[in-house]
Design a protein that fits this description.
Layout lengths: L2 H38 L4 H7 L5 H13 L6
Amino acid sequence: MTKVAMIFEREKQEALAEAAKVYEKEKQEALEKSITRMIQKNYDTEEIVSLFPDFSHSRVEALRQELAAGIKDTL
């Protein structure tokens, strides 16, 4: 592989890695937004955790407390 091709390949891999990070961050934000709405509608923590298994009970409770304290913006 030529030097130019190697540089191009490295830049492509870096761009793909960055895109993956952005995607995961946006996905996480969307999930938190959905969970926040469910908390605002008084869904039970257990129900939220059963629908979003990637979120732990403690993370849902932390979001609930942030909303109660006014730390997290209402959506």
